[in-house]
Amino acid sequence: MTKVEAKKRIEKLRKEINHHRYLYHVLDKPEISDAALDSLKHELFKLEQRFPDLITLDSPTQRVGGKPLAKFEKAKHRIPMLSLEDAFSFEELQSWEERIKKLIPFGSPSPIGRWTPKNIISYFAEQKVDGFAISLVYKNGVFVQGSTRGDGRVGEDVTQNLKTIPSIPLRLEIHKKLPSPEIEKRFKELLQKGEIEARGEVYMTVKDFEKVNQERQKKGESLYANPRNTAAGSIRQLNPEIAASRPMSFLAYDMMTDLGQKTHQEEHQIAEALGFKTDKGERCSNLKEVIVFWKRIGKQREKLPYQIDGIVVSVNDNKVFEKLGVVGKAPRGSIAFKFPGKEATTIVENIIVQIGRTGALTPVAVLRPVNLGGTTITRATLHNEDEIKRLDVRLGDTVIIQRAGDVIPDIVKVLKKMRTGQEKKFQMPDQCPVCGSKVIRPISEAVHRCSNSQCGARQKEQIEHFVSKKGFDIVGLGPKIIEQLMDEGLVSDPADIFILTEGDLAPLERFAEKSAKNLIEAIEQSKKIPLAKFIYALGIRHVGEETALDLANFIAGQIPRHLEPFALLEGRLREGSRPLTARDSSLRFAPFRMTSIMQKFSLEALQNIQDVGPVVGKSIYDYFHNKHNLKLLEKLDKANIQIQLPKFQVSSFKFQNKTFVLTGELKSLTRDEAKEKIRGLGGDITSSVSKETDFVVVGKEPGSKYEKAKRLGVKIINEKEFLSMFR
Ligand code: IVH
């Protein structure tokens, strides 16, 4: 290939690569695969190596490969880089408007002539991305210098690192129509000779942030607190290879160069037309519309791929904006209207260790409940031992917590001055809190792991079994959600489910506010559980549904002997009070009673239970003598689980939670036989009809109960229908 041919091919390749970069990284609409794009880049790279003098500053190959720097050069800003004043409420936003209105001579002819005649200002509202501010300078259309804000006057030259961000164009081109022919003309002039400066935010998406942290965790490196810090840390890397390995994006929000734009909205349109990623934003005719925009964006916030902490509201007319000037370090014409705080302070009441699906141990801080951005938070992740050391967090510490996107909150900082001296240091356990195996910390890893490789996976299975239909029957708690809960360190054994709050669930993927609420309700309802289902849920080896039922009936049959502890628990049986009767069939007891009852049985007694036998009996015996199982039962006890004891032989739960009232004489069976049948399927019988009654069984010559049932609209069935329910 001759040099002339190479030049042509190189130009074509650059154009094509740049086009696909733009489709992929700016518009999010890739048309070819990564592999195909890489292949084009490879060809370009090879050609440029053969003809090095054809390499240009804006070639796609120039995005990587710079040498590590000793330090960053200073970069003086052509126009100072300012910051923004914050508003946290409607009132603050309104008083901002009042302040600026006072400075604008509405209605009167003004030196710059373009005031709105009425007392109205229109605004431009846009997302406030939580990244960090960057200035980009293009000389004759080519990216030549990028810098951080620094002190506002002078920043650091981070051009090399910024070049690695694919959504930053290395050359400005017209991708879409510019707002006016004048602007287009001016742009084309500056493309020939002149400078164009754009400003915006470098940020990292939440997903990319999580990936970076996972990588760091694998390598045993300390973790970043949030995407913003990660992006900031990456841009300040002296080695551009590291920056290149960190996926970052750029969103433009200001065109600093005068291209003839008259409004802030036009600046966004220009930025978009010149190939930058931008937030479309919205022109608002008044503050009311601004507030509507703020609310709408606030709702979408959690679903956005990147973090935002509010919106930026600017006076849309640039001349008015200029005239309003600067106060302190912020322009009067803009304000950041923030979303409710994502940070709060609270106290670390405990630090527990959760086991993940892969057997990794995650320390989790149990917090005094606190409201964070509208939901109650009770836990924060501490990630690993290094993070605890870095924060120096101790039991009893007052801490600042923050919600960083879609994950459970982090502790950002310990307020050490608040210490009393009573705080306790935490140590990672040397035994797995779940199975008791030895805990190891592999060299070069930041995480501790249970040495029993099955541990995490087994826990997951146990939880799935526990919540299944035949167990606690918690609707909406499927395997995928259990996985997420385990990954976040929210749940590592079945008892953890009962301390989840809506605030824990809502930020997880798949959870809308409503489904979080529904799941918490389902969990709450599941706390009342028949004994047989409870036994099944424990997942004792060899104990399936049938054996659980046999065991429950056996325990129920032992009641007279254990009457006292049950009744005492219920607070019903004190000295001299009445003995238990059939109405006590709904007697409830707590898991710790279950433990003490089960421990009273000898191995032989269990093995002699009808239909149980030696192997199963031994397994049951072992279960209730295992330290870790007893711990779980203790946790379930604390969770307020109420086990319903069958006073009668129960063979299924077809009528669980259903109440029956009997009235009139039945032909084919006695009252007692009818009751026995109902109880046998888990139902209850009451003597009077109420709205809570599910069925009124009507025989011959029914009494007033029949009338009442009709009045209340309770379902009435005759003897035939009643009997057919048992077939
Ligand atoms: S306009 C006068 N627009 O927020 C400063 N800033 O709290 C120009 N930011 O330093 C800022 N998104 O880093 C503006 N759409 C947006 C923004 C935005 C994020 C950042 C920017 C600024 C900081 C001020």
What oligomeric state do the depicted chains represent? single chain
Give the ligands present: 2-(butylsulfanyl)adenosine
| Helix residue percentage | 25-40%
The residue ranges in which pLDDT falls below 50 over 5 or more consecutive positions are 109-113, 560-586
Terminal-residue CA separation: 88 Å
Give the CATH architecture of the largest domain. Answer: 2-Layer Sandwich
Structural class comes to: alpha+beta
Detailed description of the structure:
- The structure is a single chain.
- With 727 residues, the protein is of the alpha+beta class.
- It folds into 5 domains: 3-63, Helix Hairpins (Orthogonal Bundle), CATH 1.10.287; 86-338, D-amino Acid Aminotransferase, Chain A, domain 1 (2-Layer Sandwich); 340-511, Nucleic acid-binding proteins (OB fold (Dihydrolipoamide Acetyltransferase, E2P), Beta Barrel); 529-644, 5' to 3' exonuclease, C-terminal subdomain (DNA polymerase, domain 1), CATH 1.10.150; 659-724, Rossmann fold (3-Layer(aba) Sandwich), CATH 3.40.50.10190.
- The protein contains 26 helices and 27 strands.
- Strands 14, 15, 16, 17, 18, 19 and 20 form a 7-stranded antiparallel sheet that branches. A 5-stranded mixed sheet has the order 2-13-10-3-9.
- Strand 19 and strand 20 (448-450) form a beta hairpin.
- Helix 17 (531-538) packs across helix 18 (545-557) and helix 20 (591-600) packs antiparallel against helix 23.
- It is elongated, with a radius of gyration of 35 Å.
- The termini are far apart.
- Mean pLDDT is 88; it is low at 109-113 and 560-586.
- It binds 2-(butylsulfanyl)adenosine (IVH).
- 2-(butylsulfanyl)adenosine binds at residues 82-84, 126, 128-129, 132-133, 201, 253, 312, 331, 334, 336.
